[in-house]
Structure formats: structure tokens, C-alpha cells
Amino acid sequence: MNAFERHGITHLSASSLSTFAAEPALWCMERLLKRRGPVGCAAHRGTAAEEGIVHGLLHPDATIEDCQALALVKYDQLSALSGDPKRQKERDAVAPIVATALPVLREYGVPDGVQVKVERRLDGVPVPFLGFIDLRWSQHGMLLDLKTQLRLSSEISAGHARQVALYAHGTNDAAGICYATPQKVGIYRLEDAATHTAAMANIAKRLEAFLSLSADPQVLAAAVCPNFESFYWNEPFTRALGKEVYGF
Predict the structure, then answer these.
(1) How far apart are CA 222 and CA 233, in angstroms?
(2) How far apart are CA 229 and CA 248, in angstroms?
(3) 144 — phi, psi (to 5°)?
(4) Model-level pTM greater than 0.85?
(5) 160-199: per-residue pLDDT in tens?
């Protein structure tokens, strides 16, 4: 039994490894101790906007307004019980993001893949990676991951680059990220995918080495220290959990 399986981890994801690399204390709390706070409204904003955008891509005759309305219904459903103080601010961004991104993405035509489940294996990593490709156009040999933001990134972040590199691994597809904000859209093509895939494998191997130190989740959690100044702890309930777990 490898170190992952010893801790009940049967697969990995790009987002999980990015969390471990950036904030291992949060990773330990959520993945090993099973203490998890609610998803913040920024994530609900992304899910809701994607719902409206995907509807508009799959139904070319749908109006922008119809797609916005669908997205807002989704957001309200997801955030109904949220105590996030940014709930209204995030809601206000949903409709403009749909209106900004949908015309740009419609230029590629109707995607033939939405939320396509993929399983990838990397050399030296004993468990598979699972993920979901947001949008794929086989006719263009292209896959895109859709990310919503309030301010537009000027380039693909390292974590997002590793994610789409993993999705494209073993294929001939071009991979990229579509960053969508209420004002602008940026579509960036991934360069040097092999380097980012190697980085993903590197993080996974370091996680395996960390997990091999003990079969006791409490022992592993005691070896890391949270940085509560990180945005990873912005959600109030998650932050409170962290202070409880780590004694701050």
C-alpha cells in the first residue's frame, strides 16, 4: 500500500495539489482531518457564470439575457445559505461576466465536449489524476478551462497552467485558459506543457513523501503551520475552523 492509499487517497486533482503546494495546513485540515468549511461565493460566481455561458454555447439561438437569467438562478441556489459577506458583490459580477465572455467564446462554434471527465497518469505517481475539461472543440483540436475573475490576469497562473497541461497530457490538443471578468476576456494558450506536467508530478511526489512520514493525520497536521494571511483562509467559517484545529 502506497502512502496515498494509506490515507484513503485513491486519486489526485490539480486543485488539490495546488492547495498542498501553497497552503499545506489547509490541505491537511480538509483532506486528512476532514474539517472543511463551506465554499465561498467567489466559487459560486464561477459555477453560475459557467452555467450561463455553457448554455449559450450549446444553444446558439439563446439570448444573452436568457443566459444571464439562468446564471443568476444558479447563483441564488448555490448561495442561498451562505454567510459570505461578499455574497452580493459576487452576484453583481455574474451577469456581466456572461455578457462579456459568451460572444467571444461563440466565435469558436458549438463545443462538442463540456465537463469532459479525464483520467491521467504521470510517471512516478502511483495514483491517477482525475479532472474535468470545461470546454473542448475537437474540430479545432482545442480545450479550454474557464475561470472567472473580477480583475483580468495578464497571463496563465502556475496552478492553472499545471491543470490544463495535465488535461492535455497524452493528447494532441492545444490547451488554454479563458479568464472572464465583468469587463474583459483573456484567452491564453498554454506554452511548454511538458514543463508544467513535470511540475505537477513533482508536487505529487512531495505530497507522497509527506504522507509517508506517518499514518496518523494528526501527526501530519501537527507538522505544518497555517498562514492566515493567505487568501485560502478568507472564508470566515474556514478561517475559524483553522484557528480551532491549529490552536491560533
Answers:
(1) 18
(2) 13
(3) -130, 140
(4) yes
(5) 999 999 999 999 999 999 999 999 999 999 999 999 999 9
